[in-house]
Amino acid sequence: MSNFGLIRESASVWGIYGIDFVMISIVSTFVLLIKDERRNKKQLFYGMLAVVFILFLTSYLLTSRFENKDDKLTVSIIQTENPVKVFYEPDELLKEVAKNSDIVVFPESANFSKTLSGFLDTISSKKYFNNLSEENVLIIDSNRVSEQGSLKSKTVFIDSRDGVVNFYDKQLLTPGGETVPYLATLPLLLVRYFWDNDFIPSQAGFAKGNGSNVITYGNNKIKTLVCSDITSPNLSRGEEYGLIINQNSMGVFDGNQQIERQLLSMAGFRAAENRKYLIISSNIGRSYVINPLGNMVSSTDSSGYKILTADIVPNKQRTWYNKLGDWPILLLSLVIFGLGLVKLRNANQDKNFL
Prior knowledge:
CATH superfamily of the largest domain: Carbon-nitrogen hydrolase
Helix content: 40-55%
Number of strands: 12
Largest sheet: 6 strands, mixed
């Protein structure tokens, strides 16, 4: 479905669930045409075509046209692959790109700033960042840190001149990687209760964050989605911002390409739903730049240590889906469900009358 541009672009009006609704309606209509001979097939067929035409015409008319009104930004993606030399490789890559970039993005759990602080004291760290560029560069890093007895996947926003300017804690944790799946929680509790308290931990150890994932930096507002956050349409909408940053790590999946393609497809819909550029920085996987229509415009050619640089234009306009979410399609579904119940009741009354 993600390969059909017109369908994906309509996500800016009704989102992925609205597209699912249209697809299911079309399939259901064809099934009725084939299975039920009592219906007026021609009337049903033309009715379906009319509904689909009206929906997509409405989507086209309501879709906000992306216009390059803001100043462009040069974004550099640093791609990693679980470095053995934890500090050396990212350090060299950062020095290479910082002088010509406005924003530099590390992947999830890159731990660059955390590792740097282990080598350098506060004053030396400040000198290190000041020497990267004569201009202010925003460095978006990701660390695994321990807070109040739990681990957090924490995105750190560092201005090369002013130091740390903000944080974001990942909200949607990866089942099996950062949190125990719900179906496995009760069996694990029973095992720990009857067997041994130290037999297995009560949770994977990670705690989810809360609060807004939109970070303001200068004149730009950046939506931050960390790895599995990309699967949630709600986490990518509901606020005004200019671009989306997705920090990703395929380490828990051993770089599985099928899962990577699924996440890339989801990322395309998140970009199209909100009409924003979306940047994906990966560990043990490829990195991508996706345009506001959901199309991939640039990518690394393989996994491993790579640098991907692109010029993007933030779009601060909000789409209909960004503003309204899934409520319109939910209300439409309820209306159709209600009409179906009324028709079923009338049919039963006609049978009883006969």
